[in-house]
């Protein structure tokens, strides 16, 4: 009898086929998980921006009387009703960061939001089409 050392060609091909099948199954799952994580991060960053917009609305009502009547220089776009009180403001995300409404340094979003005063001190926050994250 001969002592065989090593693997046969069939055994090597079988191992390669098994590894290829594992890659075909695993790679799409890994890529899908990565994409889901990115989408989740974008959603969370946008939610933080909306919360910052609500805080701005509360400040506009409670503390900033000049802004409340659209007389201040910031926010630059302030709309008011017939009584002269603010109904909506448009601000950039960068302005919200600068003014301290949120301090998440990892948030790389840019663009504008519209803060509209609703009934009963509720605020409607609209992220405009130019808002980009990531």
Radius of gyration: 28 Å
Total number of helices: 3
Placed side by side, the strands forming the largest sheet appear as 1-2-3-4
Number of strands: 4
Distance between the termini: 66 Å
Strand/helix succession? HHEEHEE
Strand content: 15-25%
Morphology: rod-shaped
Q: Low-confidence runs (pLDDT<50, min 5 residues)? A: none
| Percent helix | 40-55%
Please identify the structural class as seen in this structure. alpha+beta
Give an account of the 3D structure:
The chain has 134 residues and is of the alpha+beta class. It has one domain. 48% of the residues lie in helices and 16% in strands. It contains three helices and four strands, in the order ααββαββ. A four-stranded antiparallel β-sheet has the order 1-2-3-4. β3 and β4 form a beta hairpin. The longest helix has 54 residues. The protein is rod-shaped, with a radius of gyration of 28 Å. It starts with 8 loop residues before the first helix and ends in a 7-residue tail after the last strand. The model has no long low-confidence stretch (mean pLDDT 83).
Helices and strands, with pairings:
Elements: H1 9-62, H2 65-68, E1 77-80, E2 86-92, H3 93-98, E3 112-117, E4 123-127
Antiparallel strand pairs: 1-2, 2-3, 3-4
Question: What distinguishing features does this structure have?
Answer:
single chain; 134 residues; alpha+beta; four-stranded antiparallel beta sheet; 4 strands; rod-shaped
Task: Give a short summary of the structure.
The chain has 134 residues and is an alpha+beta fold.
């Amino acid at each position: 009898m001969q002592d065989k050392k090593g693997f046969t060609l069939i055994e090597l091909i079988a191992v390669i086929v098994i590894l290829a099948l594992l890659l075909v199954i695993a790679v799409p799952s890994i890529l899908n998980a990565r994409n889901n994580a990115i989408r989740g991060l974008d959603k969370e960053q946008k939610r933080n921006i909306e919360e910052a917009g609500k805080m701005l609305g509360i400040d506009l009502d409670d503390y900033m009387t000049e802004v409340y009547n659209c007389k201040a220089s910031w926010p630059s776009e302030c709309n008011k009703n017939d009584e002269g009180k603010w109904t909506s403001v448009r601000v950039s995300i960068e302005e919200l960061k600068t003014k301290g409404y949120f301090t998440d340094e990892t948030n790389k979003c840019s663009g504008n939001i519209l803060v509209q005063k609703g009934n009963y001190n509720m605020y409607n926050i609209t992220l405009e089409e130019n808002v980009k994250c990531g």
